[in-house]
Amino acid sequence: MSLDEFDIREQLPDHLMRDPYTVAVATPMAEEAAELRAAAVDMANQFSPVTATWALPEWERLVGITPDVGAELSARRTAVVAKLCSSGTTTKEMIRALAESLTGYGAVVTEDASAYEFSLSFVGPTAGFISVDADLIRETVELIKPAHLRFVIQPISWSDLEDAGMTWGEMEAQFDTWGEIEEAFYCREEE
Q1: Contact at 8 Å (CB) between 31 and 25?
Q2: I want to staple 154 with a disulfide (CB 3.0 to 4.6 A). Which of 4, 58, 121, 178 is the partner?
Q3: Residue 109: inside a domain, yes or no?
Q4: Has residue 75 been placed in a domain?
Q5: Per-residue pLDDT tens for 44-71?
Q6: SS3 of the chain
Q7: Are 63 and 83 in contact (CB under 8 A)?
């Protein structure tokens, strides 16, 4: 039973729940308890930009962001998280954590020092095509990476297409055009 489904009346013995006086007292108490519980959960949600609603403007103010008029809640939350992750010395681990917080997928950062480049790929419990806001990732990484390094999000490869094990019919059902496939990303199964 989740916290939202909890009802104090379920804890009362059956003989008390059949008593009209107990029901008359327990029902408004249970309703009040549910409201207080919801308020406590809502308050706790405000302490994280990932779940904040009415406190999100304060998170934005704290990190120096002015959201676009009409920006969706998820985009605003993501912008705050990106800004929070973009401070300090840039490391491979920082980029990985940033990508994971922005996408919700596991991330792997691969460095190629000889090419002055690092790349990002995605991993998860199951393999498959995923949709991520690549522009947001690129913009955020550009803010924090050393200027002399090139950043790449690994595009789909033929190996990924083979790994997906999809027929051409299944591919056509999921993607309307080849361009959509080229703009998608592939999440490899975690090892």
Answers
A1: no
A2: 121
A3: yes
A4: no
A5: 999 988 889 999 999 999 989 899 899 8
A6: CCHHHCCHHHHCCHHHHCCHHHHHHHHHHHHHHHHHHHHHHHHHHCCCCCCCCCCHHHHHHHHCCCCCCCCCHHHHHHHHHHHHHCCCCCCHHHHHHHHHHHHCCEEEEEEEHHHCEEEEEEEECCCEEECCCHHHHHHHHHHHCCCCCEEEECCCCHHHHHHHCCCHHHHHHHCCCHHHHHHCEEEEECC
A7: yes
Indicate the residue type of 176: D
Question: What does residue 111 show for φ and ψ, rounded to 5 degrees?
Answer: -100, 140
Under the banding of pLDDT at 50, 70 and 90, the label for residue 119 is very high
Q: Which residues contact 155 (CB under 8 A, 6 or more apart)?
A: 182, 185
**Residue 151 resides in a domain:** yes
Q: How far apart are CA 124 and CA 141, in angstroms?
A: 21
Do 96 and 25 sit in the same domain of this protein?
Answer: no
Least Cα distance to 66 among 54, 76, 74, 81 occurs for 76
Range of the domain at 24: 3-45
Query: What pLDDT does 3 receive?
Result: 47
The alpha carbon torsion through 61, 66, 72, 75 (nearest 10 deg) reads -80
